[in-house]
Structure formats: structure tokens, C-alpha cells
Amino acid sequence: MYKSIIRPIFFKFDPEEVHYFTFSLLKNFPFLAKIFLPKPIEDKRLEREVFGLKFKNPVGLAAGFDKDAKMFTELADLGFGFIEIGTLTPKPQDGNPKKRLFRLKEDSAIINRMGFNNGGVDAAVERLKKNKNVLIGGNIGKNKITPNEEAVNDYIICFKKLFDHVDYFVVNVSSPNTPNLRELQDKEPLTKLLGTLQQLNLTKKNPKPILLKIAPDLSDDQLLDIIDIVKDTKIAGVIATNTTLSRENLVSENKNETGGLSGKPLTKRSTEVIRFLSEKSGKAFPIVGVGGIHTAEDALEKLEAGASLVQLYTGFIYEGPALIHEINAKLLKNYSSAPNRLQ
């Protein structure tokens, strides 16, 4: 029903307006999901223990969808095993001027140049205080007006304020929509940033896993640097990958819009990055696979390439909430035929 009726209607309207309209529907009419969507699968065989946390299933929602932690309960009720909120910054910011979100229907993709629009970390913390049992990741970044040489302070502020309210952290230095942010992926500033956060983390009685979210546009040498940095700073793992600046082989009208590209055009590259990190590191740390997951098979490819968990974003928008069910059903089917295949 979603792909045949609901999506064609939604896709006639501005994507950012539809996003907030969907939020309103889920918030005010939660029973609609129970009527029109398959019942979420709950099965012990889907559980995963990764970086010390127990996930009820390996399919999560990527950051960017619920930036301000307004819908994590309703979204988890759709069947996600975990929800990543953010990217959050210390101070509220409007992000980039609209229009800043574009569908590329012929490519099953999206280009966004949102620019870390969010209401600030303090507002999100107040909502997270009401969380009962949803496993939450906190994706953190810097404000646009903060120069890179002072960026570490923004990450520290978000880390401290979110610490008691999230289960793991994600350091976002890979968004292409904040000027010069990706320069923080260079080895020296990234090692300093992650090392500082990890030192702060280890002063806590119960440290939280810290993950690094990386761009798909990194070279092999840069990916080798990432492996070294993860080992040196002893953070928990990597999320691979963020959106891409590549526009290779696109056919849609909006293909030349600036911003980060997500969706099917990213499927192959994100899996390549996962496999590279897994193989070259000797599976030294967990990887969360995200980028171009539109089918259950896409998710399995990432898991078999070395990911421990996967996240949806654009595939969730194009394929609908049933995709969560399809992935978990496929995992259970594979588990029944080969119990050790994806464990």
C-alpha cells in the first residue's frame, strides 16, 4: 500500500514538508501504523550484542530523520532495533536556506543540504528524559559559526549534555553541508577530537561507545588512516557511510543540486567501504553499515561485507516501513537455513 498509494501522493509535495507531515501523522494517529503496516518482528534470534549494547534487531534508523529526538518512540514502534537522533549541535541553528531537500526519483535517491538544522542539544535532552526503553544513539556535530580550530569544544558540550540520555555517541565530521567540516576527517584533527572525547568518556563510571561516521568519498589511504585512528583512540567503531558528493551516472532532473547524495547510487560504494575497513583492520572493530539499503538483500550484503548492524534512511523513505520487516524476515530465514551465517 505504501509504494502503490501513499508514496505517490507524498511525492507530489515538497519533501521537507512531507517529512514533517509524516511526523504529525505518526505522533497524532499512531494506530494507523498498526492498521496499514506489518507487525514488527520480535524474535530472540535477531538480537545482536555490539560494542557492549544489546540490540533487539540489527536494523536501525540513521541520523537525520529524527534530528531533534521528537519521534524516537513512534519510530521504534515501527520495528527499528535502535534510533539515532541528531545531528545535534550545542546551539539551535536553522540550517541552510530552503529549498534544501530534493528527490531524485529516477535514481531512487535524495540530495540534501540541510546544514545541521536542529533545535539544539538542550531541547533534545528534555525529550530524551521521557525515553523508556528505546535504544538511542546521539549523533553530534559543531555549529556552523564555530571555527574548526574550536570545534572540539562543541563536541564536548554535546557529549556532556547527552551522556546520561543516549546509549552510544556518533561523531559526525563527514557531512558535506557544513562548510569545512570534512577537513576534520584529516588524521591530525580527527585524532585530537576523538582522543579528547574518549579521555572524557573514560572518566565516567560507565563509559559509552563512541563511533565515528565517515564519508564514502575517502580514498583507500584515508580509510587506512581511519583504521589507525580507531585503534589509537580506542573508540568503539565506525559508521560507514554518510552521504556522497559524487554524481556519477545520475539521470534525474535534480542531479546537479549541491549537497550530499544518498540512496541507491550509494549502495555499492558504502558496501565497498565496509568491506575494506573490515578486511584491512582484521575485523578489529564493529561497523554500522548505512547507504543505499533499499532491499533485504542490500542489508545482507552489508552484513556479509563486515557490518554488525545496518541503518536505513533514504531506503526507508522510498520503500516504506515494510522494509524493516522484510530485512528482519530475511535474516530469520537465513538463520533457519544457516544459523551461524550472520552471527
UniProtKB/TrEMBL annotation:
The active site is at residue 175. Its cofactor is FMN. Residues 46-332 form the Dihydroorotate dehydrogenase catalytic domain. Its EC number is 1.3.5.2. One of its GO terms (cellular component) is plasma membrane. Monomer. It is found in: Cell membrane; Membrane. It is a peripheral membrane protein. The lineage of its organism: Bacteria, Pseudomonadati, Bacteroidota, Flavobacteriia, Flavobacteriales. Pathway: Pyrimidine metabolism; UMP biosynthesis via de novo pathway; orotate from (S)-dihydroorotate (quinone route): step 1/1. SUPFAM superfamilies: FMN-linked oxidoreductases (SSF51395). Gene3D superfamilies: Aldolase class I (3.20.20.70). FMN binds at residues 63-67, 87, 139, 172, 213, 241, 263, 292, 313-314. This is Dihydroorotate dehydrogenase (quinone). InterPro entries: Aldolase_TIM, DHO_dehydrogenase, Dihydroorotate_DH_1_2, Dihydroorotate_DH_2, Dihydroorotate_DH_cat, Dihydroorotate_DH_CS. Pfam families: DHO_dh. Belongs to the dihydroorotate dehydrogenase family. Type 2 subfamily. It comes from Kaistella carnis. Binds 1 FMN per subunit.
